[in-house]
Design brief:
A 7-stranded mixed β-sheet has the order 1-3-2-4-11-5-12, with helices on both faces. Strands 8-7-9-6-10 form a 5-stranded mixed β-sheet. The protein is 42% helix and 19% strand. By secondary structure, the chain is of the alpha/beta class. It is globular.
Length: 349
């Protein structure tokens, strides 16, 4: 028990710093006086489930996801019912202690936080899949002056996520495009995305770095807000073998080793859910709103194509994720926990 308490205490600071990397996990900013919403478990079984003999010897998996793109990709699993149990949360800080204590078997977390957890638990966390690629966009209000990263030279933009992956990713892309992130571009760092939108609306800023689905929500409020740059596309254009990654699915190593059939079935269902969500945005948007992930079905439907929801496993996961973590480690070693994870961090490789 003492070791668990020490581990949780050690995790508290990096979790608070890195939870911003979830990038838009709360699509609708809450009023300052709004009551705090507690996480809730999504019922995993329908009212009258059909009996499946194969489930009799199946070990249910308890998984947590953030209210954002990671949960959006799982929406069919959350809604269809079954033997697994799912929990939605507002921040990574709500999920990671439960994962460490064994109250959850798996969780969807920011990619760099997965690396931090691996180091803090001495290798007891394994990554099952990449579930969300980049969701960061540079938006411009009332103009079309930015058509490339080079156009940011001498400009100021507002952003949230200093000290986490939004900052590291932006700095890397600026450097790769010949700009000095400390001299050529001024970033006015805010504490949350709602402040960035407020600055755009007030006219005190005309450029912002925002994640999806927050971009779509903001465009519904600001008529002249346009997407100027897709940072995922800018990263892909570098053709360096990696990818900009937002979220991954991790699990406790002991659960994975003891329940290989459960893990394989979970990944199959996850991949099927992602395929269905990407092919059926209207139906998926309705379920996303029903589960309270995004308030409006129409906003969810419109945002889905820009959320880069995937389910990458095995070698493809390894190549893209390891390359991304290497970029972060080169920029700021603390962003991945001080050292890159070993090969056993990647499931199925």
């Amino acid at each position: 028990m003492k070791s668990i308490r020490k581990l949780l205490a050690a995790l508290l600071l990096p979790v608070l710093l890195l939870s911003l990397a979830a990038c838009g996990q709360n699509a609708e900013p809450a009023p300052a006086d709004a009551p705090v919403q507690e996480e809730h478990s999504v019922p995993s079984e329908p009212a009258a489930p059909e009996e499946n003999p194969a489930d009799a010897e199946y070990t249910p998996l308890r998984a947590g996801a953030l209210k954002g793109p990671t949960a959006m990709g799982m929406i069919r699993m959350l809604s269809d019912g079954g033997v697994n149990h799912y929990t939605l949360a507002g921040s990574a800080g709500e999920l990671t202690p439960k994962l460490i204590k064994g109250d959850l078997d798996a969780a969807c977390v920011p990619a760099n936080l997965a690396a931090v957890l691996y180091g803090k638990t001495e290798g007891q966390i394994v990554t099952l899949a990449v579930n969300t690629l980049g969701v960061l966009y540079i938006v411009e209000n009332g103009g079309e002056t930015v058509q490339s990263l080079a156009d940011l030279k001498g400009r100021t933009l507002v952003a949230a996520g200093k000290g986490s992956t939004p900052e590291y990713g932006l700095r890397y892309l600026l450097e790769q495009n010949g700009l000095n992130p400390d001299e050529d571009v001024t970033v006015d760092w805010k504490s949350e995305h709602a402040e960035c939108v407020a600055a755009l609306a007030a006219g005190t800023a005309d450029l912002a770095l925002l994640p999806q689905p927050f971009v779509t929500v903001a465009q519904g409020k600001l008529e002249n807000l346009r997407t100027a740059l897709d940072l995922t596309a800018e990263w892909d254009a570098l053709d360096n073998g990696s990818a900009m990654i937002t979220g991954v699915v991790v699990a406790r190593r002991d659960f994975v080793e003891q329940n290989p059939e459960t893990v394989e079935r979970f990944l199959e269902e996850y991949a099927a859910s992602v395929d269905w969500v990407n092919a059926n945005p209207a139906e998926a948007g309705a379920l996303i709103a029903e589960q309270g992930i995004i308030e409006s079905p129409a906003v969810a439907e419109k945002a889905l194509p820009y959320c880069n929801i995937v389910c990458l496993t095995g070698r493809e996961m390894y190549e893209k994720l390891s390359g991304y973590l290497q970029v972060l480690a080169d920029a700021a070693p603390e962003s991945v926990g001080g050292a890159l994870p070993r090969a056993d961090f990647y499931y199925g490789v």
